[in-house]
């Protein structure tokens, strides 16, 4: 072990030789992904990488930006693979509750259409044709399958409680459940709270929390399901109530650690209530699926602590391409722009990965770390290219971290492009950027 440690330290001091050694290993050992088309199979991965996921129960697939077509398409591609080959049936996304019920109804053969449902998702980020394709495929996959093999769709974020009141009151009325007087008004008040409120009545918010707990007790006491359909309805209602309760707490705290902890709790609840054999797939940002603890415990770290090696985190990385962002124009207006990034930033993992022969590939870190060259690369503390919900910003400063601390594997795409947003369903700044700005780094 001392030998490996010394060699790794020496390796970290190399520059060009380091890059060449890493790309040589990738060219020989990384699993090439044929393309970033969500409708084509993962032929190479199935042939060469099927053993990587054999003991995994929960998959976290990230994205280095929230505005990239190839990340979305590749996540759809891998979800299809996992559903078809690894028995994954639970899909969980970093989104608010808003139309989760309607999506589940649709993918199980109910009314609606994929474009309308994707276009009404809670976060504008997901209102695109790439997600539309996912929903349509989920519906097709479910056709003719028994209930225990059908795919289910869950939103796991707590940043809003939109429509939770509607869905809870629908459940209460459907089964004529006896509840305390005034609970309908409480549900309406909680679901319309704003995290941007300048004055937050802590006493009232804590009072809401107590009333929501009372409602849960009333539901569990007064409603005893008599069949599987009723049991499913009960689980859906209790999960919705959990989201509403979490949102009430988020209004008080508005902190990322609270949010990530809630998402982790939701993931665990979902898996527990879908049976011991349930396997899940999480669609979120790199920073959430990451198992590293930089400045607070993230979703992925909570899950790694709970599931150990049964949780597999996949980061996404890119070198160049077109990225959405915003800027303030001469009139002091915030406008949407497209940044045409021409190259990876120097001294980043992406600068090294972009030198590989393949334009899209997968690297499993457990396998890679057995090689001394890759061990050093994965353990180097480097700045990673990362963009959040506000879009790309040329001067953003990313935190330095070790790839091996963040993820169990990585998907690299050399060149990325913008998603195809559903017309009329996103902000004007996203739908119609006013300018393209070239960035060379």
Question: Care to describe what's here?
Answer:
Keywords: Signal. Residues 1-17 form the signal peptide. This is Erythromycin esterase. The protein is α/β, with parallel strands linked by helices. It is 44% helix and 15% strand. It contains 19 helices and twelve strands. Strands 1, 2, 3, 4, 5, 6, 7, 8, 11 and 12 form a ten-stranded mixed sheet that branches. The chain has a two-stranded antiparallel sheet with strand order 9-10. Strand 6 (311-328) and strand 7 (334-341) form a beta hairpin.
List keywords for this structure.
441 residues, alpha/beta, EreA/ChaN-like  fold, ten-stranded mixed beta sheet, 19 helices, signal, Hydrolase/PRTase-associated, Erythromycin esterase
C-alpha Rg, in Å? 23 Å
Distance between the termini: 38 Å
Named at the architecture level, the CATH assignment of the largest domain is: 3-Layer(aba) Sandwich
| Main CATH class of the largest domain | Alpha Beta
**CATH overall fold name of the largest domain:** EreA/ChaN-like  fold
Low-confidence stretches: none
- Tell me the structural class: alpha/beta
Percent helix range: 40-55%
Shape: globular
Quick overview of this protein structure:
With 441 residues, the chain is of the alpha/beta class. It has helices spanning 2-12, 16-29, 43-48, 69-85, 100-107, 114-118, 129-142, 164-174, 183-191, 202-222, 228-253, 256-272, 286-289, 299-307, 349-353, 365-368, 372-378, 403-406, 428-431, and strands at 31-32, 58-61, 90-93, 152-155, 280-283, 311-328, 334-341, 360-364, 381-383, 400-402, 409-416, 435-439.
């Amino acid at each position: 072990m001392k030998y490996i440690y010394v060699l790794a330290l020496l390796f970290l001091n190399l520059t060009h030789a380091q890059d060449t050694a890493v790309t040589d290993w990738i060219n020989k050992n990384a699993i090439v992904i044929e393309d970033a088309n969500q409708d084509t199979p993962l032929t190479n991965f199935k042939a060469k990488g099927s053993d990587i996921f054999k003991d995994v129960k929960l998959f976290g697939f990230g994205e280095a930006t929230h505005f990239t077509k190839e990340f979305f398409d590749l996540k759809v591609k891998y979800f299809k693979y996992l559903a078809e080959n690894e028995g994954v049936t639970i899909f969980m996304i970093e989104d608010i509750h808003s139309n989760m019920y309607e999506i589940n109804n649709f993918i199980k053969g109910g009314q609606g259409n994929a474009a309308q449902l994707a276009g009404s998702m809670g976060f504008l980020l997901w209102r695109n044709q790439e997600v539309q394709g996912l929903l349509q495929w989920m519906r097709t996959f479910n056709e003719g399958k028994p209930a225990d093999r059908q795919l289910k769709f869950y939103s796991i974020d707590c940043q809003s409680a939109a429509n939770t009141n509607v869905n809870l009151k629908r459940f209460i009325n459907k089964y004529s459940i006896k509840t305390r007087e005034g609970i309908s008004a409480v549900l309406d008040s909680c679901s319309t709270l704003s995290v941007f409120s300048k004055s937050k009545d802590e006493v009232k918010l804590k009072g809401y929390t107590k009333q929501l707990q009372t409602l849960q007790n009333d539901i569990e006491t007064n409603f005893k399901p008599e069949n599987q359909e009723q049991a499913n309805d009960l689980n859906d209602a209790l999960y919705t109530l959990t989201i509403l309760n979490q949102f009430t707490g988020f209004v008080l705290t508005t902190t990322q650690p609270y949010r990530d902890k809630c998402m982790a709790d939701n993931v665990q609840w979902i898996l527990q209530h879908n049976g011991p054999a349930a396997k899940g797939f999480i669609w979120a940002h790199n920073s959430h699926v990451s198992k590293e603890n930089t400045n607070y415990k993230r979703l992925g770290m909570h899950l790694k602590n709970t599931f150990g090696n049964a949780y597999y985190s996949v980061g996404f990385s890119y070198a160049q391409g077109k990225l959405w962002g915003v800027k303030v124009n001469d009139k002091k207006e915030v406008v949407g722009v497209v940044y045409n990034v021409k190259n990876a930033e120097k001294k980043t993992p992406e600068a090294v990965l972009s030198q590989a022969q393949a334009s899209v590939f997968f690297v499993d870190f457990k396998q890679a770390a057995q090689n001394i060259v890759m061990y050093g690369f994965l353990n180097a503390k480097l700045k990673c290219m990362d963009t959040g919900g506000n879009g790309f910003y040329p001067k953003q400063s990313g935190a330095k971290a070790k790839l091996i601390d963040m993820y169990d594997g990585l998907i690299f795409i050399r060149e990325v492009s913008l998603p195809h947003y559903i017309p009329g369903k996103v902000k004007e700044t996203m739908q119609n950027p006013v300018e393209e700005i070239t960035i060379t780094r």
